[in-house]
Each structure stands twice: as structure tokens, then as C-alpha cells.
Amino acid sequence: MEKSSQYSKDIQSHTIRVRVPGTSANCGPGFDCIGLACTIYNDLQLTLLREPKLIIETTGEGASNIPLDDRNIVWRSISMLLERAGAADEFKGAIIRMENHIPLSRGLGSSAAAIVAGIKAANAILGNPLNRNELLRLATDIEGHPDNVAPALFGGVTVSVVNKGQVQTFSFVPKMKLKLIVAVPDFPLSTRMARQVLPKDVPMKDAIFNIGRASMLIGALIKGKERFLQNAFDDVLHQPYRAELIPGMADVFQAAKDAGALGVAMSGAGPCLIAFTLERSHLENEVAASMAQAFLNHDVKTKSLILALDIRGAVVLNGEQ
Ligand code: HSE
Q1: What are the tens digits of pLDDT across the range 161-174?
Q2: What is the value of pTM for the model shown?
Q3: Cβ < 6 Å from ligand 1: which residues?
């Protein structure tokens, strides 16, 4: 693995806290490219240790399913950051305390949040030897695609492309205030499984369908033209294939639209479904209730989250403990 610039040897504190937002990838047509950050967060308190000792504590969402040894994704991400910063020989262990609010394996970017939390905190302790783009590249290497890690790092709505291993992300705040209504089913769905049902090739007409809508989505958000959002969240590249994994998906989409949502999509690889309303329309509770009922009609129990866009991305909360 390539090494970045050397870290600062003049480290003030070996402990730092960071907060990382949950994320929703794809946003309908932007498969593996578009993402957004939302106002639900995981907190990490990290202490780097010189001795090879690992203490991991997690509370909150999915705590009982998170490995507390060297398989832990936060620790694996920290190790890769230390390696890339040339600090792996100096720091061989860590104390990791996670407080998680992002549901696990539901399509709200819990693994991206874990990766970003680990590398952001370790980088901050080392005096930020990796710049924004180097962090993005490392996070993308670990996660495999940029559409969750980019908004987790930068906040806002993000468009990312990968070209010969280089990741480029454009992050922006839409010119309209959105509410994000998330129906969180009571079952997990692994991204790996949700990718297995996808075809290797798609028809040209489907590619054209998505290119138009993805472009429309970004343009309408940037310019604040809500009337162009009507069909802009639609997708034919991944959602139709994944529908079989989420009972009632089409009905929940319809229920959200009938209740006044601007658009609705799978959140990442699912199983969460996410609807979008304008903040000033005050329709979020109605949309949430309609989505929950439509899911229930298919015997799927859900929790509703009513969120907004996070515009800061991962932040260091304080340096000293
Ligand atoms: N773009 C990815 C997918 C997101 O849809 O498979 C997974 O979180």
C-alpha cells in the first residue's frame, strides 16, 4: 500500500472524538455514484496506543452483532490509515468506543460510517497527514465504492466517479430544504446479497433512462427546481432487480407518492426505503405513516426516521479528553 506524507511527531493527544453521519446511496438513479448524508450519527472516541492492545466497546444500534476483536471494521480502517500515514510501527493498538445510532445493514451507510470514523479520528490524532482526497481514496478502497463514504466524509449531496483508481467527488447543498423520510424494516439485508441479484449487463435504453434522471436530479437539486424532481428519483438499473428482496417495495413507493412525496427510492442497497419531501410542505409525518402502513400490509414491521440533510459530514468533536 502506498504511503502518504509523514504524520506529525508532535502529537498533543492520543485521544479524539469524531461524529459521522449516516448516508443514503444511489438516491434512485445514481447507482454507485450519488449519495447524501443525513442527520443520524455514530460517535467514535479513539485512543491510539503504542502497545499491541485492542479494547473495543460499542453501544446502541447493532451492538451485539459487532465484532470486538481485530475483525472490527473501525479497527481495520484505523490500521490501514496508520499504514498509509507511515505510523503503523509507532501505534499498534487502540481503545475504540462507539456509540451507534445508524441502523446496521439497513442501507443507511453503517459500514461507511465505521470506516470514516476510524480513519478521520486516527488521521486527526496524527495531525492530519492525509488530506481530504487521500481520506476519500482510502475510504473508497476499504468500502469498495464511494457513494456512502463520500457523503459520510463531506456531507451534503455527493456525486462521485472513480477513474483508474482515483476518486473524484463533488459535494453540494441543494437549493431547497428537504425532509428525508426513511422506513427502516425490521430485517437486515447485506449489500453483497443485494448486489448478487443484479445483472452483469443492462440494455442501452435502461442506461439512457437512468442517465437522464440522474442528471435531472442533480440539476434540479442544485437549481432548486422542485418541479423537475417528479420523475428524477426513478431507476431501472438496480431497484427492479432488488424488489424481490424487499416485500411490498412497489406499494410503499406508491403510498409515499400518494401521500405527497416528491420522490422515493431504495436507500443504498436496502432494505430501507427513503422518501423526499420539501420541508415547507410539512408532509413528512403523513408520508412516514403511509409508508409504514404499506409495509405492514406486506407483514413488514418498520421504524420511521424523519431526517434532514447533514451538510457537515464527519467532524472532530474535540481533541483532548
Ligand atoms: N451503491 C451501493 C449499492 C450502495 O447499491 O450496492 C451499497 O450501500
Answers
A1: 999 889 999 999 99
A2: 0.93
A3: 25-26, 31-32, 145, 147-148, 191, 194-195, 238, 268-269
- Ligand 1 pocket: which of 195, 198, 242 to mutate (most atoms <8 Å of CB)? 195
Q: What is the DSSP string of 33-72?
A: TEEEEEEEEEEEEEEEESSS-EEEEEEETTGGGS--STT-
Contact 110, 61 (CB under 8 A): yes
Laid out side by side, the sheet with 302-308 consists of 263-266, 273-278, 178-185, 302-308
Distant-in-sequence, close-in-space partners of 321: CB < 8 Å, separation ≥ 6:
13, 15, 17, 45, 47
**What residue owns the CA closest to ligand 1's atom 4?**
268
Q: Which of 236, 234, 315, 318 is nearest to 19 (CA)?
A: 315
| Ligand 1, atom nearest to 107 Cα | 8
The whole-number pLDDT of residue 320 equals 39
| Distance (Å) from CA 267 to ligand 1 centroid | 8
- Give residue-wise pLDDT tens across range 23-32: 999 999 999 9
Nearest-5° Cα angle at 234, 229 to 236: 155
Quick check: helix, strand or coil at residue 239? helix
β-strands 34-49, 93-100: how paired?
antiparallel
Q: How far is the CA of 89 from the centre of ligand 1 (A)?
A: 34
The single-letter DSSP state of residue 8 is P
**Residue with CA at minimum distance from ligand 1 atom 6:** 269
**Structure letter (DSSP) for residue 22:** E
Q: Pick out the chain residues at pLDDT < 70.
A: 1-13, 319-321
Cell matching residue 223: 437549481
